[in-house]
C-alpha cells in the first residue's frame, strides 16, 4: 500500500483534484491559519454531482469529524490526526486518512472551521484503477550467463477496478505492442520468443495478463510496459556486459 500526503488548496476558490489508486491509503492535510485556540475544525463529505441521479436535488454533506470527535458510524476505514493549534505554525492542523480506498470513497471532502471568513480546504478525490506487476516492476538487472540465457522469465500484470475490460490490458516491448494472433484465452503466441497468457475473467473487478519471455536472450532487454487505457507500469530488463549468446 502507498501512503500519500496531500496538501491543502491555496484558497476557498481552489479545489484540489486528487487521484489515488484503488486499495491505497491517502492522507488529506488541512491547515487553517488565523483561528483562535478553541476553534472547531470539521470534516464533511459528499458525492460529486455527476454521481447523483439526474434531476435529483443536490446531495447533502455528510459530517465526518469535529476536531477529533467522529460524527458518523460510516467510514470506519477513516482516521483523524488532529493536532489543533500550533504556536510555531500559527494554524490549526487536521489530517484525514482514508485506508484501503474503495470506489465509494470518491467525492468531495471539505475541511472548515466554525469561524466566518476562515479558510476552507476542499479535496476532490478520484479513485483510479490499481495496477501491479508480479514479481516486480522497476529495474531488474540480470547477469548474462548460462543461468539466464535460454531460460524463460514471466511477468503478470493485474488491473483492479470496477468494470474492468480485459481487452484493454496490453503488453509492450520498447513501445511496440506485443500483439495476439489468437483470441483464445490461453497461449496466445505473438513472436518466436514472447507468449501472452490471458485468464478467464470471472469478475469485472480484476483482469490479468501474463507475458512469458521464452529462451531469454540479449535482445530481450529493454522496457516492458503493461498498459490499461491511460494507466501504465513498467519493468526494465537490464543485462550486464558479460553475456555469452
UniProtKB/TrEMBL annotation:
Pfam families, per database record: Ig_3 (PF13927), V-set (PF07686)
Domain (Ig-like): residue spans on this chain: 8-122, 135-236
CDD domains: Ig
Gene Ontology BP terms: synapse organization
Cross-referenced SUPFAM superfamilies: Immunoglobulin (SSF48726)
InterPro entries per UniProt: Ig-like_dom, Ig-like_dom_sf, Ig-like_fold, Ig_sub, Ig_V-set, Zig-8
Any GO CC annotation of this UniProt entry: neuron projection membrane
Protein name (database record): Ig-like domain-containing protein
Native source organism of the sequence: Didymodactylos carnosus
Phylogenetic lineage: Eukaryota, Metazoa, Spiralia, Gnathifera, Rotifera
Amino acid at each position: 500500500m502507498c501512503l500519500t500526503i496531500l496538501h491543502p488548496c491555496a484558497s476557498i476558490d481552489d479545489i484540489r483534484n486528487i487521484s489515488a489508486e484503488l486499495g491505497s491509503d491517502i492522507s488529506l492535510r488541512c491547515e487553517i491559519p488565523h483561528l483562535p485556540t478553541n476553534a472547531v475544525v470539521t470534516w464533511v463529505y459528499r458525492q460529486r454531482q455527476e454521481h447523483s441521479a439526474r434531476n435529483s436535488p443536490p446531495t447533502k454533506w455528510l459530517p465526518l469529524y469535529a476536531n477529533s470527535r467522529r460524527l458518523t458510524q460510516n467510514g470506519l476505514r477513516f482516521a483523524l490526526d488532529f493536532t489543533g493549534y500550533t504556536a510555531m505554525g500559527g494554524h490549526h492542523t487536521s489530517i484525514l486518512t482514508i485506508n484501503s480506498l474503495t470506489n465509494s470513497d470518491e467525492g468531495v471532502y471539505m475541511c472548515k472551521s466554525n469561524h466566518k471568513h476562515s479558510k476552507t480546504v476542499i479535496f476532490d478525490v478520484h479513485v483510479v484503477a490499481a495496477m501491479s506487476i508480479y514479481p516486480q516492476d522497476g529495474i531488474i538487472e540480470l547477469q548474462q550467463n548460462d543461468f539466464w540465457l535460454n531460460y524463460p522469465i514471466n511477468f503478470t500484470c493485474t488491473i483492479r477496478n470496477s468494470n474492468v475490460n480485459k481487452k484493454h490490458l496490453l503488453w509492450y516491448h520498447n513501445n511496440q505492442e506485443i500483439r495476439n494472433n489468437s483470441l483464445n484465452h490461453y497461449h496466445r503466441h505473438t513472436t518466436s520468443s514472447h507468449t501472452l497468457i490471458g485468464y478467464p475473467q470471472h469478475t469485472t473487478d480484476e483482469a490479468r495478463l501474463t507475458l512469458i519471455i521464452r529462451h531469454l536472450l540479449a535482445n530481450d532487454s529493454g522496457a516492458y510496459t503493461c498498459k490499461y487505457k491511460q494507466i501504465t507500469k513498467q519493468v526494465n530488463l537490464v543485462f550486464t556486459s558479460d553475456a555469452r549468446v
